[in-house]
Structures are given as C-alpha cells and as structure tokens.
Design brief:
single chain
Length: about 325
C-alpha cells in the first residue's frame, strides 16, 4: 500500500510541476528552474556520497567542466548543447576517474579524499581563469539571437522552455538513481558505504564500484553544468568552479536526507525557496543584510545536524507512510 501511495504522490507531483508554467508567471518559473537545477545537482552528488559513501567537496569542478565544454563548443563552432552534454559528461567522467584512481588506489579516504576533490576544483578554476580560448578572466558570453523564440535544439528561448528541459533532466536522474539502487551495483555501493572492509571481505570489488560512483556522479553533474551555461549565457571561472557552489550543491542532499531518492529533491526545494525569500528580504532592508542568505543556510544546517542528522525526508516519509522509500 505504501508503494501505491508513493506512486500516486509522485504522479501528483509531476502533474503539478508540468502545469506550473501555465499557472504562474515568469518569476515563479525562474524560481522553479533554480529549484529543479539544484535538485538535479543534489541528486547527482548523492550518488557519490549518499549511495557510495565517498565525500566530495569539490563537485563544482564538474559543473564548470560541463558548462565550459558545452558553452565553448557552441560559442566557437555552433555545436548544439545536447552534443555538448555528451562531451562535457565524458570529460567530467574522465577527470572524476583520475581523481578516483588517485584517491582509491593510494588509500586516500574520508576528509583527505574530500580535500583532494577541493584541490582539483581550485586548480581547474585557476586554469580556466587564464584559459583565453574560453574567455579567461573576461568570461565567456553565449550569443542569444531571439530570446522570445524557443529553439530546443540550441537551447535558446523563453524561461518556460528551460523549465521543461530541467524538469526532464531531473526526472531522468531520479529514474537513473531508482534503477541503480535496485541493482547489484546499488547494493555494492551501500555495502561499501556502511563498511568497506566488510564489503571487500564478501568479495566486492570496492575499487571498481567506487570508481563507477565517482564517474557517474561527475558525468551527470556535468550535464547539469551545460544546462547552467545555456540558461545563464555567461560563464566566469570564479563562479562556475567556486567553492561556495560546491557547498550549496551538497546542502540539498544533506538537509533533505543523503542516501534517499526524494531527500535531495526536498532539500533543494526547501533551501532554494528559503534562499529566495532571504534574498528578497535583504533587498528590501538594504545595506547590512547582504549575508543573510548564507547565515540562514548555516542556521538550518546546524539545526539539521543537531536534531535530524538523517535529514528531513526520512521523518516526513515515515509520517506519510512512505518510509519504505528510504533506501538506506
């Protein structure tokens, strides 16, 4: 019965999201785009940490690689972003594979592996900030011929078009996560997350399983980066690879519930809506409230760590009779 209720709720949520652009204005659509984009990235990061237990604090690396790969190919050669997504995902998977190989082959674990991911992200940020082919510190600007005309092939158009694209991408990564969790690889990841030594003793090739988690998470994150490039039309290395982006990226999964399917989505929506509210308050009150968004995020994280270490979703799922979804 719980699964039937979960399915009905999921269908209802999808119907509401599909109808949202017809009900709300452009501002609401833009906020929902940001919510779905953050949910997508949180889901992609959750594969690596929530499922396989490998902490990455430099995931903005893959956002930036995807954004610059798709953006540069379009800027220089007119390559459609859908091809850019494939190229960006391949590059990110390769870089993720290098990081994973260095970390896992030489026994770099826990916080030291997290520091390794930060180091690669910072190195890449500095590199792209001096890489003139992609604009360097001056930035890369993607041309927009007609903003009032939807061109799905080139991802040029109105907010509603971008909304349905990111909704489709979010639904796709959700289905990928759902499918993997029920597979042998998903069970391997969770065994590694709980006790890597025990998993290895049972005959699981932990190196290959962890490499698969890192590379898949990196590739999916890069696809989100391509979307980011074409939605914003402006790329700066300082923002694309920024440390704060990596932190904001993972907060949705942490607050919603790592290792769950719905947790990263719920957490990303809560954080994004709260951030938008705090930003509006800061604008209304003016000087002295510039950092209120970051303070709000910090307070929420403190509350979650103190009271709900498993995140918001597991408790909510239990109240709704959906605790079988927890998938932990």
């Amino acid at each position: 019965m719980a699964m039937g209720r979960a399915t009905r709720m999921l269908i209802g949520l999808m119907v509401a999201l599909l109808l949202a652009p017809f009900i709300g204005n452009d501002y609401l659509v833009s906020v929902l785009i940001l919510c779905l984009f953050n949910a997508y990235l949180a889901q992609a990061w959750n594969i690596m940490m929530g499922f396989a237990g490998q902490l990455s604090l430099g995931h903005a690396l893959y956002v930036g690689l995807g954004a610059y790969a798709g953006g540069a190919l379009f800027f220089h050669y007119g390559t459609p972003p859908w091809i850019g997504m494939i190229v960006g995902a391949a590059i990110a998977a390769l870089v993720g594979g290098v990081i994973g190989f260095l970390g896992f082959r030489f026994g770099v674990k826990g916080v030291y592996f997290a520091l390794l991911t930060i180091a690669f992200a910072e190195f890449t940020r500095i590199l792209f900030d001096h890489f003139t082919w992609v604009g360097g510190s001056s930035g890369l600007y993607l041309p927009v011929v007609r903003a009032d005309h939807d061109n799905l092939l080139l991802l040029r158009g109105r907010p509603a078009m971008f909304y349905y694209v990111i909704l489709g991408l979010s639904a796709a990564v959700f289905l990928i996560c759902h499918r993997i969790l029920g597979s042998r690889l998903g069970y391997y990841w969770r065994a590694i997350r709980e006790d890597q030594d025990a998993a290895q003793a049972l005959g699981i090739d932990t190196f290959k399983a962890k490499m698969a988690a890192v590379m898949l998470s990196a590739a999916l994150t890069a696809v989100g980066g391509v979307f980011y490039a074409f939605y914003t039309n402006t790329l700066y290395a300082e923002s694309a690879f920024a440390m704060h982006r990596s932190i904001e990226l993972i907060l949705g999964a942490i607050i919603g519930g790592m290792g769950t399917l719905f947790g990263p989505i719920l957490g990303a929506f809560l954080l994004t809506l709260l951030g938008e509210l705090l930003t509006r308050l800061a604008e209304n009150f003016g000087h002295g409230f510039e950092g209120v968004k970051q303070i709000g995020y910090g307070l929420i994280l403190l509350v979650i760590i103190a009271l709900r270490r498993e995140g918001v979703w597991p408790r909510l799922a239990k109240r709704l009779g959906l605790d079988g979804e927890k998938a932990s």
